[in-house]
Amino acid sequence: MINVTQLGYAGVNVVELDSLQHVLDKVCGAEVRRDGERLYARVDERHHRLAFYKADAMSLAYMGLEVESLDALRAAENELRGKGLEVTRATAAEREERAVLDMIHLRGPDGVRIELFFGAVLEKLPLKPGRAISGFVTGDLGLGHVVLACADRDAATRFYTEHFSFRLTDYIFWSEAEATFLHCNPRHHTLALMNPCFGMVPGQFNHLMLQVKSIDDVGRAYDIVLEEGIPMVMNLGRHTNDQMTSFYVKTESGFAIEYGYGGVEVDDHDWDVKVFNAPALWGHALQA
């Protein structure tokens, strides 16, 4: 099994960049760089954690899963090929654009592009947030999490847990939704897999999460969203399973950005897998 240490980065195809740049910069507090029809968001010492590409339709372009060494990356390539999976080595241009030392990629369930990498490039200059914030929770916990709709949620769960070192955290089943939450480090979940509910289709990218170090960062961002009339998918609330206090900004491209504080962390030596029948303890009401 391949030991994945974190979600190192993610790339998203989007239909617009201007309002997204404003949300990432002035609401979330990321350091944003614009390069023509590409947008990069930096949230810590790494060159960037998020990349957005102008496209005709929204989709998850790729997710970058980090391994612990170059040797581990070579071993992962051999293991995946040995299992009959088609693996491609990254080009020099891809490595440069991702800002990593080396990378391979393959297609996972529902055609999701999975990139395994090692050696994220670190910036020499400190982070310049778009607004005053206490900082983002990354480090060994990684970027945050992504949520995907799957044609076969159970099969997708088996793929990530059998090929990679994702472990089951818990489930939430409510209304027509069935969600499985997976972790690869103490972050409650790095990956959540859902059935294609609420109008989603298999392979659809639902949202990404950014976690900050203070509840005041969330509150001030929420004030900005309310003052500027920025659309939300869900208002301020607290989740049942990971205890995150957050809200969800709706982007013009169709995916959401969850912005939150205070998620619980998993201790694999003392963790009970639970099943919840609601996603929120309070709040998180769907917005029109």
From TrEMBL:
<feature type="domain" description="VOC">
    <location>
        <begin position="142"/>
        <end position="262"/>
    </location>
</feature>
<dbReference type="InterPro" id="IPR029068">
    <property type="entry name" value="Glyas_Bleomycin-R_OHBP_Dase"/>
</dbReference>
<dbReference type="InterPro" id="IPR037523">
    <property type="entry name" value="VOC_core"/>
</dbReference>
<keyword id="KW-0560">Oxidoreductase</keyword>
<feature type="domain" description="VOC">
    <location>
        <begin position="6"/>
        <end position="119"/>
    </location>
</feature>
<dbReference type="InterPro" id="IPR004360">
    <property type="entry name" value="Glyas_Fos-R_dOase_dom"/>
</dbReference>
<dbReference type="GO" id="GO:0051213">
    <property type="term" value="F:dioxygenase activity"/>
</dbReference>
<keyword id="KW-0223">Dioxygenase</keyword>
<dbReference type="Pfam" id="PF00903">
    <property type="entry name" value="Glyoxalase"/>
</dbReference>
<protein>
    <submittedName>
        <fullName>Biphenyl 2,3-dioxygenase</fullName>
    </submittedName>
</protein>
